[in-house]
Amino acid sequence: MSPHAAASRQTSDETQPLDADVPASQQEASRMGGSEEQSPPSCASLPSFPPHSPSLSSSPLCQHSPPALENLLDLFTPPPVERLDWSMAHDAGVIVECLRADTLDNEISGNKAWKLRLPLARALSEGCGIISCGGGWSNHLHALAAAGTRLGIATHGLVRGHPEAPLTPTLADARANGMQLSFISRAEYKQRDQEDFAARHGDGLWVPEGGGSIDGVAGLAPLAEALVAPLAGSPAPQLVLLACGSGTTLAGVLSTLGERDGLRVVGVPTMNHGDQLYHRVRRLLAESGGSEQQTPEWGLWLGAQAGGFAKAPAWLIDFIQRFEAETGLEIEPVYTAKLFAALAHHLANGLIAPGTRVRVLHTGGLQGRRGYPALNLA
């Protein structure tokens, strides 16, 4: 079913919890930095941009003054960090903190603000619009449309699906924020990495699906620093966890932080074939001027996809409801629920040493909960 072919996503009992069939030793398919280098294939990307922007105040975004700019700049202040009161963490003797990037804005949500900040700056500087793509529940398109309307930047979303289908709430929001929507077939959508893909559909600055570009990698620098900043009077985290879709956020964190003793960064793929994400992250690091030899130790926890991207079997919905009731932290099925479910599995199986301080990135995307009826019952 096309992601926008219905106004809600469906849950399923087809898939099993993380620890149902796969041994724990196989579910942590970690790859460390410093492995043998491969020559990554080149892929279509934006023109070269500095891998690390020194600060937002020196970027073109601050050299223009649309009416909503001051409010938009507030998005790039460090998000708050909260320690979770979670029985699973207590029982394992592990400290779990959460970087609450979900709290900064209802529309330009979580990590999306940072992945978009340099493309937005460039669009303002060049006086052009932005064209991008995504599915019917895309957090990326939702955030891009909101940022565009606040800054006076025209936005165009290429949506995988059929124009006669009802708009999802996500796409309705995007259209209300002025985004032009064009619906394209699945076959055509598969060509989105081809160099002429965007040009076939109109003019504008091309931003790949999910903000997955070297600009997206570079824009994440402030968020990466906040991920490892210690709370007052406490040590820095030893383990950083984040959910992965395109791999851009993981690449941005690794590229920014560089080599750091005592720190491990782990990405949790949320779709099938997550093992391929390792090669995409390596490619993004190479294209943005980074090197695996200049990153923290890092790896991937496989097995958390719960049947595939945006799938939400009954056990995952149940996990969300129990987790939220205990911790008071709202999460969503596509990214953050699978991230915390993976963490819960590792805690329950003693795979994280007692005393470890874990920092989890909440990437927002709560608007997507509207696609899961079981989470919206009164």
From TrEMBL:
Which GO terms of the molecular function aspect are on file? D-cysteine desulfhydrase activity
Cofactor(s) essential for the protein: pyridoxal 5'-phosphate
Give the record's keywords alphabetically.
Pyridoxal phosphate
Q: Which residues form the Tryptophan synthase beta chain-like PALP domain?
A: 110-364
- What InterPro entries does UniProt report for this protein, alphabetically? ACCD_DCysDesulf, TrpB-like_PALP, TrpB-like_PALP_sf
Please name the Pfam families in this protein's record: PALP (PF00291)
The region called Disordered is annotated at 1-63
Q: Does the keyword Methyltransferase apply?
A: no
The source's domain of life comes to Bacteria
Q: Which SUPFAM superfamilies match?
A: Tryptophan synthase beta subunit-like PLP-dependent enzymes
Q: Where is the composition biased (Low complexity)?
A: 54-63
PANTHER family in the record, alphabetically? 1-AMINOCYCLOPROPANE-1-CARBOXYLATE DEAMINASE-RELATED (PTHR43780:SF2)
Q: Which family does the UniProt entry place this protein in?
A: Belongs to the ACC deaminase/D-cysteine desulfhydrase family.
What is the protein name for this chain? Pyridoxal-phosphate dependent enzyme
Question: Which species is this UniProt entry from?
Answer: Cobetia crustatorum
